[in-house]
Amino acid sequence: MSKDPTEHDCTTCGACCRSFPIFANEADAVREPAIRNEARLLPQHLQTNDKVYQLFPLPFQTRCPYLKADELCRIYASRPNVCRRFEAGSKQCIEARRRQLGEAGD
């Protein structure tokens, strides 16, 4: 069960944007055209319905290219579905925080 999201303030964190691979599909790229310009188009043989563009990791990047220095997402309103499904306080959230911020997990 997820923890209370208010215990995990996403506006000051960004750990999830530095911890796990982030992919976008074609519908995400239609909603947010910057994805086509700034993400890596996967080779055809690696593409799936959910994975057409790779946002993170990319060479020479330590975070998703849309995570700004203030830890807020530059494309939050039109972010990819994988980001929309990521829950504050979930096991993945706690793992990302542990990896990036050294917080203890459950």
Primary descriptors:
about 110 residues, alpha+beta, 3-stranded antiparallel β-sheet, 5 helices, about 10% strand, globular, disordered N terminus
Please explain how this structure is put together:
The chain has one domain. Helix content is 29%, strand content 8%. It has helices spanning 16-19, 26-31, 34-38, 81-85, 91-101, and strands at 22-24, 40-41, 53-56. Strands 1-3-2 form a 3-stranded antiparallel β-sheet. The longest helix has 11 residues, at 91-101. The N and C termini lie close together (12 Å). Mean pLDDT is 89; it is low at 1-6.
What's the alpha carbon Rg, rounded to whole Å? Answer: 14 Å
Structural class label:
alpha+beta
Widest sheet: strand ordering: 1-3-2
Largest sheet entry: 3 strands, antiparallel
Tally of domains: 1
* Uncertain regions spanning at least 5 consecutive residues: 1-6
Number of strands: 3
Per DSSP, the total helix count is: 5
Distance between the termini: 12 Å
Q: Approximately how much helix is present in the residues?
A: 25-40%
Shape: globular
H/E element string?
A: HEHHEEHH
Summarize the structure.
The chain is an alpha+beta fold. It contains 5 helices and 3 strands, in the order αβααββαα.
Topology:
Blueprint: H1 16-19, E1 22-24, H2 26-31, H3 34-38, E2 40-41, E3 53-56, H4 81-85, H5 91-101
Antiparallel strand pairs: 1-3, 2-3
